[in-house]
Amino acid sequence: MHQPNNTITPFLEKISKVNFDKYYTPGVKILCHAFMWLFFSLLLFLNYWVELKLSFDSSFLLTARGTVNNMVVFYIFFYVIVPKIFKSNVLGVFLVLICLPICIYIWLSVNYLQFVGMHYLGIEISSGPLQNIVSRNAKQTVAEALSFKNVFGNAMLVIYSFSPPFFVKMLFDITRLFNRTIYFQKQTSELELQNLNIEKDFLKAQLNPHFLFNTLNNLYGLVVKKDPSAPEAIINISDLMAYTLYESNTEQVPLEKELDFIRNYFALEKMRYSADKEIELNISAPEDLQHVMIAPLLTFTFIENGFKYGLKSADRNFLIININFVKNIFYFSIENNKDTNIHKNGPFGGIGVKNVEKRLNLLYPANHSLKIEDRENSFFVSLSINLT
Fold this sequence. Notes:
By secondary structure, the chain is an alpha+beta fold. The protein has helices at residues 10-16, 20-23, 26-51, 56-87, 90-120, 133-138, 142-145, 148-224, 230-245, 255-270, 300-309, 351-363, and strands at residues 253-254, 278-284, 293-294, 318-326, 329-337, 368-374, 378-386.
């Protein structure tokens, strides 16, 4: 099973590491809002002053008017309408449908009130393309200023006016939401990984007494027969126990040590079977693997199941393991014969295999491929992991 690519770009990875709750304090929030309004006000001022060639005072006056319009719409929308959208089901849906017309009407209403106020104070734009704009707008009635014709005719102009701050706010909120989502995903993954490590430790605790019991019985037979392979078997047991008890407690181990563990476990398990059974371990890998790291005991469940369920048929008995390491890709495959009477009920491997699948999904989400086949006369497992 090949897992989908869950990687994110370096830029998004940096965003996911920012602690918004720590740095986005109320004081910083006020400064960010102030900077945003000053920035857009400056752009609007330059448009009036440079592009439309209005006087400094007229440009400043119209900039202040436009900024006030945008601020009122902005804060009503994000701090009044949006909270009601999320809190109410029926009203929320209704507000979503009419929020754009509401914003346009609010903008035009505030704009009209400001023109009326400036006209009352005797303020006017006396020259340029916007000459007499104050009096022309102030002389309208409320019905005329907010008529459907006026709203429809000025809709695009109003939308263009308040779109920039809206875009910045939504971009910021999306970024913060993405940050919190990634944070909670990481928390969940770390918790799952902790649970899997507990399961892995339980697996090792099961391995030690069961495996030791069988191996010591075989070792006793070798000693009684004064078999010259007895000392080597003792060393293998010692290395195996040291690895499972101490070295495999980390998230990753050198691949060379993992391969030594497989060799030792395989050799000790093979001792229990007669020479007529076809039991093979083929490892092809460079000599220097100290720099290559891998999660420990990922293949152990499959090897243990191979010896546990295989080699019991009345016909051909075989267990063949192939391991290759090429261009930073770890390849593992195992195939063993099966007794169909034993395996006709229940899935292969049970909890141990599910544990391996979970660990692979957490540790190598987009860099592994696992295939398990319950064939007619054998079980076959293949696993590849990109260790770059």
